[in-house]
Amino acid sequence: MTGGVLLFVQQASQRTVVAADQQAVEDARDDLLALYRSGGKAALRTEIARRFRSIEGERAVLLLTDAQGRPISGNLGAWPASLPADGHWRIMSLYRIGREEPEPIGVIALRLKGGELLLTGMVISNSLQLARIYEEALSVAFVISLVLALGIAIMLGRILARQVSDIARTANEVAVGALDRRVPTDGSGDAFDRLGTSINAMLERIDALVTQLRMMTDGLAHDLKSPVTRLISVVEQASAQTRDDTALDALEKVHHEAQTLRSMLTTALLISRTEAGFGGDQRRDTNVGDLLRDVGEVYGPLIEDSGFALSISAPESLIFPLHRELVSQSLANLIENALYYAEGGDSIDLSAALEDGHLLICVADNGPGIAEESHHAALKRFGRLDPARGKPGSGLGLSLVEAVARLHHGTVTLADNGPGLRVLLILRRP
C-alpha cells in the first residue's frame, strides 16, 4: 500500500513539473499565433528574433519555416523530419543552434494559414532532472518505509507470538492438571490483556469447581474406606467363628466383594490425586529397562501360571524422568488386564523406546483385543465393555493409566496388535 502511494506521488509530481513547461510552451504558441493574425509573417519573424535577444530565449525553442520547411527564423537549423504539424505536445531530443549535444525539448508544431510551419518549444532537461530527483527521493523513501514496515511487522509478530505463547503455555499446563496456572497480564487493557483476564476468570471458576468435586469425591472415597475396612474385619471374624458351610460360603462372597470395593476406592483416590497433579514433582531420572524388568519379575510367576509368556524389550541405557511407583502401577494394571481378558492368547510383550525425545512404553498381547470403535469407551472411568462385565474388575485400570500418562504430559493410545491389543503410553519430558 505504501509503495502504491509513493508511486502515485512520483507520477503526479513528474506530471506536474512537465505540465508547467507544457503550459509555458502553449502560452508562447498562443501569443505568437495572435501576433501572426494581426501582423502576418513579418511581425512573427521580428518577434521571434526579439525573444532570442532577451532572457526568455535561454530555454525557449522557436522555429518558423516557409511552406517547404526552409527555416525563416528561429534557433533550430531545420525542421525535425519526424515531427508532424498537428498541434500536439511531444518531447523530442533535438539540437539547438550553437549546441553540440542534443537536449530533451517539449515542442508543439502547427501549420499556419499561409502554409508556414511554426514550432514552439522549451528545453525541459531541468524539469526532467527535477523529476528524477523526486523519483530517487521517493525510491529512498519507499525503501526506508519498507524496512520500517518490516521491522514493525517483525516486532509486532514477536509481541503477538509471545502473548499467544503465554496463553498456549498456560493452556497446556492446565491440560496436564496444573489448575493453578494463570495467563500473565500487564493491566494495559488491550485485547490480549482482556483475553488473558477472561481466561483467568474462567480458570478460577474451573479450579473452584474441580476442587469442590475433588474434595467431595476424595472425602466420599476416604469416608467409605473406613466402613468397608471394618466390614472386611467383621466378615473375617465371623468366618473364623462360624462352622456352617453355607454361612462360610456367603461370608466368603461378602469378603470378596468388600475387598473389590476397597480396591476400587483406593484406585479412585489414586486417580483423583494423580489427576490433581500430586506426584508431578517426584519424577526422577529412571532406568526404564530396569523398571520394566522389575515389573516383569514381580508378575512373572502369575503370568506363567496363567499360561502366558512375557517378553521384555528396552534399551539398557534408556534414562527418562518418571514417577516410578505410578508408572509401575500403570504397567501392572495393563499386565493384569491382558491376563484377565486376552483369552486365547499366549504372549505378553512389554517394550520401551525413545522417539523424538518422547518415551514410548508398549504393552501388547495376542488375545481377541478390543474393537476400534470401543477404544474410547474402554478408557472411560468405570467403563467396562460387554464381554468383560462377567469378569472381576472395577473399570478403573485404564483410567489410572491415562491419569499417570497425563501426569507425565503424555497420552494413552489403544491399537490393534493383529491379533490382540496394543496399549501405548507416550510420556513427555516436563
Automatic annotation (TrEMBL):
<protein>
    <recommendedName>
        <fullName>histidine kinase</fullName>
        <ecNumber>2.7.13.3</ecNumber>
    </recommendedName>
</protein>
<keyword id="KW-0902">Two-component regulatory system</keyword>
<dbReference type="InterPro" id="IPR004358">
    <property type="entry name" value="Sig_transdc_His_kin-like_C"/>
</dbReference>
<feature type="domain" description="HAMP">
    <location>
        <begin position="158"/>
        <end position="211"/>
    </location>
</feature>
<keyword id="KW-0418">Kinase</keyword>
<dbReference type="GO" id="GO:0005886">
    <property type="term" value="C:plasma membrane"/>
</dbReference>
<feature type="transmembrane region" description="Helical">
    <location>
        <begin position="140"/>
        <end position="161"/>
    </location>
</feature>
<keyword id="KW-0812">Transmembrane</keyword>
<dbReference type="Pfam" id="PF00512">
    <property type="entry name" value="HisKA"/>
</dbReference>
<dbReference type="InterPro" id="IPR036097">
    <property type="entry name" value="HisK_dim/P_sf"/>
</dbReference>
<dbReference type="InterPro" id="IPR003661">
    <property type="entry name" value="HisK_dim/P_dom"/>
</dbReference>
<dbReference type="InterPro" id="IPR005467">
    <property type="entry name" value="His_kinase_dom"/>
</dbReference>
<dbReference type="Pfam" id="PF02518">
    <property type="entry name" value="HATPase_c"/>
</dbReference>
<keyword id="KW-0472">Membrane</keyword>
<dbReference type="InterPro" id="IPR003660">
    <property type="entry name" value="HAMP_dom"/>
</dbReference>
<keyword id="KW-0808">Transferase</keyword>
<feature type="domain" description="Histidine kinase">
    <location>
        <begin position="219"/>
        <end position="430"/>
    </location>
</feature>
<dbReference type="Pfam" id="PF00672">
    <property type="entry name" value="HAMP"/>
</dbReference>
<dbReference type="GO" id="GO:0000155">
    <property type="term" value="F:phosphorelay sensor kinase activity"/>
</dbReference>
<keyword id="KW-1133">Transmembrane helix</keyword>
<dbReference type="InterPro" id="IPR003594">
    <property type="entry name" value="HATPase_dom"/>
</dbReference>
<dbReference type="InterPro" id="IPR036890">
    <property type="entry name" value="HATPase_C_sf"/>
</dbReference>
<dbReference type="InterPro" id="IPR050428">
    <property type="entry name" value="TCS_sensor_his_kinase"/>
</dbReference>
<keyword id="KW-0597">Phosphoprotein</keyword>
